[in-house]
Here is the input.
Amino acid sequence: MFLKYVLVFYLFFSSVLALEHSIQDPKNFLFALQSHEDNYIGYTFVTNRQHFMDLKISVKYLLFYTDDQNVEGFIAFSGRFAQYVYDVPSEPVIAKRINPEFFLRYNHKKLGVKKFHIDLIYGHESNGMSDRDVNTSNASKTYWESEDVDGKKVIDDEFYQQYLSRGWDYWGVRTNILSCMNDDLLVQFYGRYFMQKGLIFQENAEQFIEGVDNPNHIKNRNAVDGFSFRIEYDKNFKHRYKERQKKYGYKMAYEFVSGWENLFRSFYHTHKFELGFKASMFFGTFPFRIWYKNGYMIDVATYNRRQEAMGFNLELHSF
Here is the structure.
């Protein structure tokens, strides 16, 4: 059993290292797959006593660009998946997040920053389920729990919440600013509006299921998500050891998330803290990160529950 997870880790880690060593000059690989958000493999613990192996893969592909590369068009995909190890019979793999998007990027090179870009986005986010998954999951009674709320039966078991279908199309604007005075400081603002009626991926948003969801929970994602601010300090060092250059460093990050409808109401805010370390090893750079999150959107299926979660992972973002 344990060897299975070692093999998954090895294959994922070695594939990223191969990309790191093969792509020496990014300018020669404009139309190769690139990292979009962070890629990682790790383990997550949620306060409802759930725990699972946590894998996220996020890539983007350049569709077109202008001659000066000030304007670029991308298609991107981010996927997060969980395997419930020793916690649930059959140890199922559950999709936590499916997120394709198109975005147009404008790179501004004349501001007082080293790197600044703004993205105009149209995307879709869901957990990859459908309404029928709620019914099929009812076939297993071992972990099924329910409660009466105003005379109605609702799903209250945390694991089977993962089978509820969630999905939205959204418009978004995202900016990344890397300071020219301090190359280690990155600031990001990200705004999204989740649509009731989608234009491309999903016609009708799925965010609350009458008779299934707990009526005391949030019914609209814009109430708890849509505006985010992230600040990240990434410090790197280099030194030579036995005629080889070694790299090491640390990273600290804080992320704030709120819904547009409750922007100034602290109960609906989400906070995430991260602390990472990295060091050169015989097989490459070893980037280890621990994190803690308090609020909403622990995952897409349970976006409307206020929870706490923490975990550790290997952050892989070198291609």
Summary: The two ends are 30 Å apart (CA to CA). The first helix runs from residue 2 to 22.
